[in-house]
Amino acid sequence: MTKVPTIARIWRGRTKPEFADEYEAYNRAEGVPPLLKTALGVQLLREDRKDETWFTTISYWADMQSMTAFTKGDPEQVHHLARDAELLCELPERIQIHKIVVPPRLR
């Protein structure tokens, strides 16, 4: 039986356009794989603006217990990747936790 996600954990960070491709590749290689091993699903979103590029990582969880087990503590605490300080404009201070009210319906 497939678990239905009830919680989304959302991280956002931004980088300069000249670092955007490098950060995307780095995040795909270092940030996403640990989530794929544990979360029910993961999305990495990219928004290219004129002067900056925003990245959003959304991971989906069955419940707070599974998310807390993954983070080994406070699920709102950010665990920065080794090169985040080098590639991001600033280090994000928190993670957003959202209750999923209407789960996605895929065709």
From TrEMBL:
SUPFAM superfamilies: Dimeric alpha+beta barrel. It comes from Rhizobium changzhiense. InterPro entries: Dimeric_a/b-barrel. This is Antibiotic biosynthesis monooxygenase.
